[in-house]
From TrEMBL:
A Pfam family reported for this protein in Swiss-Prot or TrEMBL: MatE
Keyword Membrane (UniProt): yes
UniProt keyword list: Membrane, Transmembrane, Transmembrane helix
Membrane topology: Multi-pass membrane protein
Chief place where the protein resides: membrane
Keyword RNA-binding: no
Protein name: MATE family efflux transporter
Native organism taxonomy: Bacteria, Bacillati, Actinomycetota, Actinomycetes, Pseudonocardiales
Length: 450
């Protein structure tokens, strides 16, 4: 397996439908591989009973935060590596991968150590004590040992996307998750006279997957670095540069988490039907965010390469095209979900009270699809330009001015689920206005390699 595809010359700056689709499809496979594996994991553990499944839910929430807080390793590395790649400095792009991988390893080891110390108190809070917390602690203490692999995978995806490699990340992620999906039922339920390890078997399968991914991404990086004579030791200046960009992306990620955790907390106070309806529509929103994020990743790769090649005209062309693609995809999604309004919710719940509540959020969700397509495309453009400081300010501002006040006003005045989703709408419209104005200007188009 080669860690890079043969992309060079005009192809680096190609933003035609075929190239964008190729980059987006590869990113989408990587993005959905983990959620699909978690569905398998949930189904396997679900056969053990309600208590182990509840413990898995508690532990999975904690493990998800590791991925969320490590987002900068993927997006920040893509931006910096794409710039170098576009400038014809593949060696510099690989050096960014080396720096990101060192940060991933260091952060991952810190998570392992801290996780062992805080697993019990966190499980007590989230699991409300008792047997549920006990099982969640057992799962977390094993599963958190996979944190270095999770973060190395994010770094690996970052530098490979930067050099516009489309095959290798897909092969690596599918190999890890595929092996784990096969091993999980055996480790949990056993075979023949062996009864298996129960819930802990699921955690071991998780760690096994992340270890495979770590080794494959690590081997690909070593091959690239050796071929280009890039030092594999950590370079302090590169680490500092990565952390500078990562700070803005991390704060942006925390703003998203604050908004959506608040939305769930407030919705729960409107009753079981409201929180169940919110969960159904939110999961569909999350799924569509993953689809649209694949387009944003393609935009990030292409814009980074264009600016790295000092071609502002190419960056402007990419911006226009991916924005149109995002809008078209969003409009199509809106039409599809509008047509399925009377059918799709029933797939998730047969409860008449939940089905009666879903429309309060559903039509906000449908109307926001074109807005989301536009916002995600331009997010990718600005991330490719390493304009993370602006995106951090915009996200925090839209959250503080739009989303969070509306959420808590909904609680105060009893506006229900409609008020919560109106808050999300204000959040998205604020971001759409901000990225639209920013993209029309040229302050973000700083040419040259980073």
């Amino acid at each position: 397996m080669s860690s890079a595809d043969p992309t060079s010359g005009p192809e680096v700056l190609d933003a035609g439908p075929v190239r964008v689709l190729s980059l987006s499809a590869a990113a989408l496979v990587v993005l959905v591989a983990e959620p699909l594996y978690l569905l398998v994991d949930t189904a396997v553990v679900g056969r053990l009973g309600a208590l182990p499944l509840g413990a898995l839910a508690v532990g999975a929430v904690v493990l998800a935060q590791v991925s969320s807080l490590g987002t900068f390793l993927a997006y920040g590395t893509t931006a910096r590596a794409a710039r170098a790649f576009g400038a014809g400095r593949r060696d510099r792009a690989i050096a960014e991968g080396v720096a990101a991988t060192w940060l991933a390893l260091l952060a991952g080891l810190a998570v392992v150590v801290v996780g062992q110390l805080i697993a019990r108190p966190v499980a007590e809070v989230l699991g409300d004590g008792g047997a549920l917390a006990d099982q969640a602690v057992s799962w977390m203490r094993v599963a958190l040992c996979g944190a270095p692999g999770i973060l190395v995978a994010m770094a690996g995806n970052g530098w490979m996307r930067g050099v516009q490699s489309t095959r290798a990340p897909v092969v690596v992620v599918l190999a890890g998750n595929g092996a784990s999906a096969v091993a999980c039922p055996f480790l949990v339920h056993g075979a023949g006279s062996w009864s298996g390890l129960g819930l802990v078997g699921s955690a071991i399968a998780n760690v096994g997957a992340q270890t495979v991914v770590l080794l494959l991404f690590g081997a690909a990086l070593v091959r690239e670095a050796t071929a280009l004579r890039v030092p594999l030791r950590p370079v302090p200046a590169d680490l500092r540069a990565q952390l500078g960009l990562g700070r803005d992306l991390l704060l942006r990620s925390l703003a998203f988490q604050a908004c959506f955790l608040s939305a769930t907390a407030v919705t729960a106070r409107f009753g079981a039907a409201s929180v169940a309806a919110h969960q159904v529509v939110l999961q569909l929103w999350t799924f569509m965010s993953t689809v649209l994020d694949s387009l944003a990743i393609a935009a990030q790769q292409l814009v980074g390469a264009a600016l790295g090649a000092s071609s502002r005209s190419s960056a402007r062309t990419v911006t226009g095209r991916v924005t149109r693609y995002g809008l078209v995809l969003g409009v199509l999604a809106g039409v599809v979900f509008a047509a399925l309004a009377g059918v799709l919710p029933r797939v998730f719940s047969p409860d008449p009270t939940v089905l009666a509540t879903i429309p309060q959020a559903w039509w906000f969700f449908v109307a926001l699809q074109p807005v989301a397509g536009y916002v995600f495309a331009l997010d990718g453009v600005l991330l490719g330009a390493a304009d993370a400081a602006f995106l951090r300010r915009l996200t925090l501002g839209s959250a503080v001015v739009g989303f969070l006040p509306m959420i808590w006003l909904s609680l105060a005045f009893g506006w229900g689920l409609a008020g919560v989703w109106a808050g999300l709408s204000l959040f998205m419209l604020g971001r759409a206005l901000g990225v639209g104005v920013r993209a029309r200007g040229d302050r973000w188009m700083v040419p040259g390699g980073i």
